[in-house]
Amino acid sequence: MVSAAIAIGLLWSTAMTATVDVQPELLRSALRYRQALTFLKNHPQQQQLMVMALTSAETRVTDPSALATAYTQAGLVAASLLRSDTSYVWDGSQWTGSSRTTYGYDAGNHQTSQVYQTFTGSEWINYFQTLSTYDGNGRLSTDTMEQWQSNAWVYQSVSTYTYDGSGNLSQIVSQDWSGSQWTNGTIVTFTYTGGRVATALTEMWSSGNWVNWGLSTYTYDVSGHLTQLLGQTWQSDAWVNQSLTTSTYNGSGDETESVDQIWQSDAWVNMTKHDYAYDGSHQQILDVTSTWFTVMWMAITNDTMKYAGGQMTEKVTVNVLANSVSRTQYSYDTDGNRVLALTEDWDMIGSQWTNAARDVWVYSAAVVSCCVGMRGNVNQAGIIDISDLTGLISYLTGAGYVLPCPEAANVNGAGIVDLSDLTGLISYLTGAGYIPPNCP
Q1: What percent of the chain is modeled with pLDDT above 70?
Q2: What is the pLDDT of residues 288-312, one digit of tens each?
Q3: Which residue(s) pair with 34 in the sheet?
Q4: Are 431 and 375 a contacting pair, CB within 8 Å?
Q5: CA distance 256 to 247
Q6: Which of 119, 120, 308, 399 is most buried per CB count within 10 Å?
Q7: Contact present, 430 and 416 (Cβ < 8 Å)
Q8: Which residues belong to the signal peptide in this entry (predicted)?
Q9: 346: domain CATH number?
């Protein structure tokens, strides 16, 4: 049971960030979920753990770079587009390629391709790619995943996304390629309460029928913060508890604690805990990860973060068990996009920082076309307040950051700007009045 809990925890950290959960992440989590299921399709027990990985909560974007990375993929107009993300490792004398992801877009700046490669010997080798299509409203319609085999791309899986009348993502149907045709794999159905995700039901295709597999249930406080995420699996015609994540917030709405538990011997057993601290601008400056040892929490890692101009510039990680210290320093371009992350390890013997890993992001200019737009209410702290029909958008920050501009036809007489993203969750933006942006 412990190994299962560890696996769930790893998948959880990959699929969801509890403190900064951007609504488009719902779809990106779904994509990672499908990718993992595809690679684990011959390992049903590991596949079952993936049920707990698909999650969503309220939307909170806390820096301009998040707009560039998340909302560009959501189909909104952006100032720049991510073209590649390359990872390197230090071999002791030079940087060696590790992995690379390149991105392609259509004329509307929707991300249409994502090619993942690994570095072998002296060249980049294709590994898998994801091809995306969109409906007439700019919402994600399909994701097709292909793997590189014998110098050709071979189908692996396809996911089809549908939306309800309010534009909420309602269902994801995923199929696997049998070699000659698509066969049903999983279906995830979302329900909503008050505009927020209430449940995510996962069913598996078995013997010609959809059968229950996993259920995620979301609980929120009166302010709309996600306070509990309950994960259950279907066993012997009943839902059985598997995992529970409980979050606590301060009066400013910042998450201060997150506790992960597993169901064992008819009781919840502590596994991991995160304690967070923030500065006056609600930027997370501390993340202490602890593991439960019989009767008490023991700190395992301690992350401290520094910021400049609203952007993280450094993160230092102290690993108590490994008795090691590492730091990652971040650099940005003039548009606020993260372009470099350099990770170094502390050499205790030599008393110096040594290279460990490096990530490089490359961007290109996006196609921007708008002549009528509206800026939200910007207060002295540089926070742009936004409201939407679902209540999922809490705020966007970044002093002076220009909001994506909707087309003129979407501005009605009531002073409401209608927008749509690939989840369909952003319905309108409200503000104090029209402020036409500078259009190219």
Answers
A1: 65
A2: 999 999 999 999 999 999 999 999 9
A3: none
A4: yes
A5: 8
A6: 119
A7: yes
A8: 1-17
A9: 2.40.128.720
